[in-house]
Write a structure and sequence with these properties.
By secondary structure, the protein is an alpha/beta fold. The chain has 10 helices and 12 strands. It has helices spanning 12-24, 37-50, 82-86, 96-113, 126-137, 150-164, 197-204, 208-226, 231-245, 286-311, and strands spanning 4-8, 29-33, 59-62, 73-76, 118-121, 144-146, 172-176, 184-192, 195-196, 250-258, 263-272, 275-279. It has a 6-stranded parallel sheet with strand order 3-2-1-4-5-6, sandwiched between helices. The longest helix has 26 residues, at 286-311. The mean pLDDT is 95.
Length: 312
């Protein structure tokens, strides 16, 4: 069976996603779309130059939305990294005026192509933009997913693993809520060294508050150092795409629509060929439930403000 993925936006993140796809042979066909035609054509030629020296072949087409009609997955990596770099608030919402307008341009073209696969949204602010894509493409909620805190959870695992001198893949657990400043580590879900992290922290005199802050600040630490982030988020997006293509039924913390909060936010779900295959229900502490509600309220507020501006 032919596997086909579209990537919309080939800046630092989109190009890293496309490179990962080509290098691993995840897709037989790759569609690259970007307003900067010179850049996207150059990327396509660069990938084609690489094919003779890698183990897989990928057919690449450029700037043709009609090619998305039979795509399994489309990944939105549209963004303007200049805006968060200029922001002094360390807030992904600095991109919202640009990216919310971009959705108005991109979503109708995705819809017009006849695409009926799974849309993965990297574009920030992730939860609001995922909501907008679902609204304007008309795709079912289960087929529109944001990478959300899949990356933040990875940053948490990296921070915990660093404290314990273990591989981050040996840490389990989730960051929940907004992919942004209101997200938090649900420590009740985290395990390492075969024990709940709360027990490990008490035994080894580790500050979970410090680890949480390190994880929360991870993206902006990278942004400050090189003016963009791309490898961590591209790995998260490609993992999500791979699990969809493989119908893996894996449990991942992604931005998905949660009826009880009436919004998209990050919460574990079962991922398969149809996108969100099943909702997971965690047993969170009362404090964690409060934090999640606050995060949901913030996302809903920002979405309402954005929709109001777009309709007035």
């Amino acid at each position: 069976m032919t596997r086909k993925i579209g990537v919309i936006g080939t800046g630092n993140v989109g190009a890293a996603v496309a490179h990962h796809i080509v290098l691993t042979g995840l897709a037989d066909q790759l569609v690259l779309i970007d307003k900067n035609e010179q850049k996207v054509k150059a990327d396509a030629m660069d990938f084609n130059d690489a094919l003779a020296n890698i183990d897989h072949h990928t057919a690449i087409t450029v700037n043709d939305y009609s090619q998305l009609a039979d795509a399994d997955i489309v990944i939105s990596a549209v963004g303007n990294i200049r805006l968060p770099n200029e922001s002094k608030t360390n807030d992904r919402f600095a991109e919202l005026p640009f990216t919310s307008q971009a959705v108005l341009d991109v979503a109708p073209q995705i819809k017009g192509s006849g695409f009926n696969g799974v849309l993965i949204v990297i574009t920030n602010p992730c939860d609001v933009i995922t909501s907008l894509y679902q609204k304007y493409t008309g795709l079912p909620q289960n087929q529109v997913i944001g990478t959300g805190t899949l990356l933040d959870s990875a940053r948490m695992k990296r921070a915990v693993a660093s404290e314990l001198n273990i591989d981050p893949r040996s840490v389990s657990g989730y960051n929940l809520g907004e992919h942004g400043n209101s997200q938090f580590t649900a420590w009740s879900t985290v395990r390492a060294l075969s024990h709940p992290i709360t027990e490990v922290a008490d035994q080894k005199q580790i500050s979970l508050e410090k680890i949480d802050q390190v994880a929360r600040d991870g993206g902006f630490t990278v942004l400050k150092g090189k003016k963009y982030t791309n490898y961590g988020i591209s790995a998260a997006a490609v993992r999500l795409a791979r699990d969809i293509l493989n119908d893996a039924h894996s449990e991942l913390p992604v931005s998905n629509y949660r009826k009880e909060y009436a919004t998209y936010l990050s919460y574990p779900a079962i991922i398969g060929k149809n996108g969100i295959e099943e909702k997971i229900q965690l047993e969170l502490t009362d404090r964690e439930k409060e934090k999640l509600q606050l995060s949901a309220d913030y996302i809903k507020q920002k979405l309402a403000e954005t929709l109001d501006k777009q309709t007035n």
